[in-house]
Amino acid sequence: MAICLESADLPKNKLKNMKKNIINWVCVDAQKIGTWKQAEALAESWLDGNYHKKPINLSTWCRWMPPKLFAILPKFLQMLAVKGLKQPLPDLVIAAGRQAVLVAIAIRHKAKTVVLMNPGVPSHYFDVVIAPVHDQLVGKNVILTQGAIHGIEPSQLVFPEHLRNYPGPKIGVLLGGNSIHGTYENSLAIDFANDLKRFCTNAGSLIITPSRRTPVDWLEVFEKNLNGTSYWIWDQKTENPYPGLLSGVDAIVVCEDSISMASEACVMGKPVFIYQTGVKKAKFKHFYQQLFDKGYAQPFSVKAKINQDNFEAPTLKEVDRVVEQLRLIFNQS
């Protein structure tokens, strides 16, 4: 789903063909790893790698300032906030994260601005805002996406050699973890492990990979409760098997607290099951209901069939469509 954008919606001075050797910045709040993945996936596809990464860590006086408040500051204060960024200023900035949005606001009269996700201010502050449908943003310059942007290309994934001998069907399990949306208790890990064990009753293997947010205790709980089941858990000490493991599994189970991992799983065209972890925020419910309605995924059930007859899922990869619209907007050939 997308709102079509017309060239007439943008100022004429922003519609000139991009000149050669332009300076492109990708600005993301310094510690937001998941946000970096989305911003770089867009930059790689759209800008062919021609960009400079700018981790944003602003001065204390403005770091926590809401974008709506920052937007009404005098221009000299806005520029003071970003003075630590290396000059010259860019021709184009892709911004993602609250601090990065402040940078885009400060330099929006000097550069083209493309913002990922809800910026916290009206979309007309920027040239383009790219946001998931579940953020429910409205504007002539808003491109809506189904879930998170990512750069995973199934044909380029390599399944780890040491996992090939585990019996099939193989089930990839993508664990989430503690976040502002909730805390993972050990009781949830016990329930999850037992549900996965029942899910694998008819043979098969679990290929489990934790995220950086997964509590360490969870891995111990899984090992204790998965006795009698063929499984492998990434110990977070060796090379991360993700996303390569997606290519060799027959089905994927994703914790509902990670919209990014769910979006990535749905690019594979395989059965994707969403495991409830107690997230109550409405945008998550909206996102997953759309995945279910459009056939990208289904709710987890211990009775669900892993090898579904004549199963053919649509693949979810929004970055190509987004890039096509951006090229039209900025009059790029």
How would you explain this protein's 3D organization?
By secondary structure, the protein is of the alpha/beta class. It folds into two domains: 7-151 and 319-329, Rossmann fold; 154-299, Rossmann fold, CATH 3.40.50.2000. The protein is built from ten helices and twelve strands. The protein has helices at 33-47, 60-63, 67-70, 75-81, 98-107, 186-199, 216-225, 259-265, 282-293, 319-329, and strands spanning 24-29, 52-56, 92-96, 112-116, 128-132, 142-145, 170-174, 205-209, 230-233, 251-255, 272-275, 298-299. Strand 10 (251-255), helix 8 and strand 11 (272-275) form a beta-alpha-beta unit. The longest helix has 15 residues, at 33-47. The chain starts with 23 loop residues before the first strand and ends with a helix. The model is unreliable at 1-8 and 10-19 (pLDDT under 50).
Instruction: Based on the coordinates given, report the CATH architecture of the largest domain.
Output: 3-Layer(aba) Sandwich
Bulk shape: elongated
List the helices and strands in order: EHEHHHEHEEEEHEHEEHEHEH
Distance between the termini: 24 Å
**Strand arrangement, largest sheet?**
2-1-3-4-5-6
Strand content: 15-25%
Our count of helices gives 10
Q: If you consult CATH, what is the topology of the largest domain? A: Rossmann fold
Radius of gyration: 21 Å
Percent helix among the residues? Answer: 25-40%
Average pLDDT number: 89
Low-pLDDT runs of 5+ residues are 1-8, 10-19
The level 1 CATH classification of the largest domain is Alpha Beta
Structure classification: alpha/beta
Tally of separate domains: 2
Largest sheet, if any? 6 strands, parallel
Give me the count of strands: 12
